[in-house]
From TrEMBL:
Identification of the protein by name: Pectin acetylesterase
Biological role: Hydrolyzes acetyl esters in homogalacturonan regions of pectin. In type I primary cell wall, galacturonic acid residues of pectin can be acetylated at the O-2 and O-3 positions. Decreasing the degree of acetylation of pectin gels in vitro alters their physical properties.
Gene that this sequence comes from: LOC120273057
GO terms (BP aspect): cell wall organization
Organism annotation: Dioscorea cayennensis subsp. rotundata
Keywords assigned by UniProt, alphabetized: Cell wall, Cell wall biogenesis/degradation, Hydrolase, Secreted
Assigned protein family: Belongs to the pectinacetylesterase family.
Length: 445
């Protein structure tokens, strides 16, 4: 795979990884280069999904460092160690392979010592036995394969120059190893697959409460991609962990997966979610307000549950989410002639008819997002970029040339909303008007 990131006039980045991986970066300084690379780890993690993408192709942080040839200390990045949840086994809260779930924790300090940011990791889903068995041999299905330490960048950074509003909070990344956005409940004896996503979430929250989160003054649940979907699914549940005096909000980044019609007139993502929900028994953990009216798989979609969320929530998404374009709107199964092959990987190759179709997808996203954002307590930031996940990448979260809507970066918009500095309902004009985007271009097979 070959990915090109366009981000203004003075930066380009290319990643090549097949049997190995090499990286070239031009422009800016070493710190910014590495922050961009580590941010992309979160992005690629979010792009891996069940049977749609064969294998876990996400480059590890350690692999990136080795190929770039930099040293952690020299780079000045915050590397946070892995902690296994030892109490989880007795609760049956285990990864797909039966190993212990885990998280990374960096304690808060100063004015943020009693504030908590809990980030739910993304990384796609598995919808059948084959793809779930495959995940057992990856860090998205087993803590045995998880990195022993990971970088905290973007909204997770401890540097006030890179993360002005949340840098000194207690920051936690809960690792994702169940394949159903922390919602599964089941077990497949023949394949030895543990579908315990809800139990993992519960065990992680119990551990964090015991470490001081119970007495938090402020709390924010965040996540991108499958983690963003998990935020939407768990938002009110997270709020319920705290007393009435705690300020609790939720931030869903690239989690607005739509029940959209694909280029062949079918429902690729709905069919996929049916497999996820049915296989992993997730229906018992989906909102009863939805499942009492709709079938389980439909209640996995944010558009069918957002209107019942009581907790303040911020929706951050691109109008042209590249994951949804590639895997939901124009997958190979819906495009047997290959008409969409190049357009879905490189927006600059799309013809007028294809752009019109993508504009229709954006319209559907805006209709969904605007409905939930009509409540004053909720926030919205929908930019017209071809990207996926923007909070955990330093270049898109907060930087000299980060994406903007008006005069607001993603970080400023989220901070203004969380701290009630102003109401945030930011919607970009349609493509191609935004010149601040950090668009992704994919090349290769």
């Amino acid at each position: 795979m070959h990915i090109h990131v366009t981000r203004g006039a003075n930066i380009s980045l290319e990643l090549f990884f097949m049997h190995g991986m090499s990286i070239s970066i031009r422009g800016e300084n070493k710190m910014n280069k590495l922050n961009l690379l580590f941010g992309l780890v979160a992005l690629f993690s979010g792009l891996a999904v069940g049977s749609c993408i064969q294998g876990d192709r996400t480059p590890r942080a350690s692999e990136i460092l080795a190929n770039v040839g930099e040293d952690n200390d020299e780079a000045g990045l915050l590397m946070v160690p892995l902690t296994l949840i030892q109490s989880a086994s007795g609760k049956g809260a285990v990864c797909l392979d039966g190993s212990l779930p885990a998280y990374h924790f960096n304690p808060g300090f100063g004015s943020g010592a009693n504030s908590w940011l809990v980030n739910l990791e993304g990384g796609g889903w598995c919808n059948d036995i084959r793809t779930c068995v495959y995940r057992k041999t990856s860090r998205h299905g087993s803590s045995n394969y998880m990195e022993k330490e990971i970088p905290f960048t973007g909204i997770m950074s401890n540097d006030p120059a890179m993360n002005p509003d949340f840098y000194n909070w207690n920051r936690v990344k809960v690792r994702y190893c169940d394949g159903a956005s922390f919602k599964g409940e089941g077990y497949d004896k023949n394949a030895s697959l543990h579908f315990r996503g809800q139990r993992i979430y519960d065990a992680a929250m119990e551990e964090l409460l015991s470490k001081g989160m119970r007495d938090a003054d402020q709390a924010l649940l965040s996540g991108c991609s499958a983690g963003g979907l998990a935020v939407i699914q768990h938002c009110d549940e997270f709020h319920g962990l705290f007393s009435a005096i705690t300020k609790v909000k939720c931030l869903a980044d690239a989690g607005l997966f739509l029940d959209a019609v694909d280029v062949a007139g079918g429902r690729t993502l709905r069919n996929f979610y049916e497999g996820v929900v049915d296989l992993q028994g997730a229906v018992v953990n989906l909102p009863k307000s939805c499942t009492s009216q709709l079938e389980g798989a439909l209640c996995f979609f944010p558009q069918n549950i957002l209107n019942n969320i009581q907790t303040p929530i911020f929706l951050l998404n691109t109008g042209y989410d590249v994951w949804q374009i590639q895997e939901s709107l124009a997958p190979k199964s819906a495009d047997p002639t290959g008409y969409w092959k190049y357009c879905k990987k490189n927006y600059t190759t799309c013809d007028a008819k294809q752009i019109q179709f993508l504009q229709g997808f954006r319209d559907q996203m805006l209709n969904t997002a605007n409905f939930i954002s009509s409540a004053k307590q909720n926030g919205l930031f929908i930019n017209s970029c071809f990207a996926h996940c923007q909070t955990e990448r330093q270049d898109t979260w907060y930087g000299d040339n980060s994406p903007q809507i008006g005069n607001q970066t993603v970080a400023k918009a989220v901070g203004d909303w969380y701290f009630d500095r102003e109401e945030v309902k930011a919607v970009d004009c349609a493509y191609p008007c935004d010149s601040t985007c950090h668009n992704l271009i994919f090349r290769g097979s």
